[in-house]
Specification:
single chain, mainly alpha, 12 helices, globular
């Protein structure tokens, strides 16, 4: 099938859009901590079944497991907790827009930690991404046009979420540099480590409640949590692996970064947002900057 890699990358951006929408609805109902743990547990189950069916190899070293575990704790526990907090304040559109900072942050960290060189075009791409995001978040909103609005605390959580994802990717890179790892197995190890660390801590702190009781009272919260988990950690990962396998990494990464653009129509029709030329231009600039960073 021609263009299967490119189509898979675009499908990844679409399902990640659905993930952001589903999780932003769920977090408003059950809170960020409950949502984060529940979706990690569900993702562990889904990935376990997939690995058993596909017979994926668990041929990983102890050091690779350690790096992936740290990656999961930083990216999935800390980073995604920040992202879910951001959803509560600024919604999925602004949240995913701020996540466009993650590639630039990853490149900068890789420069200092891994010694990876950033070209002049790479720096230009980062600058364009930052300028695009600034164009959106610094826009004055005289009259709120939806239930979400630009909020300083929400922006802070969004930036921290991008930083958490970037740091998590660096540790995952450490693991992959030591040898080949099946993508599903790597994701399973990241998520499983996050559950093992995060769940006991929240139970001891009294922050985690029995999910059975919660979802019996709120079936919509359960539906949104399951939907977001299937679309994100499961289908999103599958599509991204196919994309990387069948097209160039730079092209795949760029197409997968178009989530903020895909989310624009949703914001108009569902959240009834009145998009200004600044918000539209800023979103396209942010994604364009990511494209330059990956395709230079």
């Amino acid at each position: 099938m021609p263009f299967i890699g490119e189509l898979s990358a675009l499908l990844t951006a679409v399902v990640w859009t659905g993930t952001a929408i589903a999780f932003s609805g769920a977090v408003a109902r059950i809170g960020s901590v409950q949502l984060n743990i529940d979706r990690l547990i569900l993702a562990t189950v889904f990935l376990s079944v997939t690995i058993l069916i596909t017979g994926a190899s668990f041929n990983v070293s102890a050091m690779q497991v350690t790096y992936l575990a740290v990656s999961g704790i930083i990216g999935l526990v800390i980073g995604d907790s920040f992202l879910f907090h951001a959803y509560k304040f600024i919604g999925p559109r602004y949240g995913m827009l701020l996540m466009s900072l993650a590639p630039a942050m990853t490149a900068i960290i890789a420069f200092f930690v891994l010694g990876e060189v950033i070209s002049l075009l790479g720096f230009i791409g980062m600058a364009i991404t930052i300028a695009g995001i600034a164009l959106v978040v610094l826009e004055k909103q005289e009259v709120p046009v939806s239930k979400y609005k630009i909020d300083k605390l929400g922006i802070f959580w969004g930036v921290m979420a991008a930083l958490g994802q970037a740091a998590g990717l660096i540790f995952a890179k450490f693991a992959f540099n030591l040898g080949e790892i099946n993508g599903f197995v790597a994701t399973f190890l990241r998520i499983f480590a996050a559950v093992v660390v995060f769940l006991p801590l929240t139970v001891i702190a009294g922050k985690y409640k029995n999910p059975v009781g919660i979802y019996k009272k709120d079936r919509r919260a359960f539906s949104l949590t399951v939907l977001g988990t299937i679309l994100g950690p499961y289908l999103g990962i599958t599509c991204s692996l196919v994309a990387v396998a069948y097209t160039k990494v730079g092209i795949a990464a760029t197409l997968m970064a178009t989530t903020p653009i895909i989310m624009l129509p949703y914001s108009v029709f569902i959240h009834k947002e009145k998009l200004t030329w600044r918000s539209i231009l800023g979103t396209f600039l942010a994604v364009g900057g990511v494209a330059i960073l990956f395709l230079h």
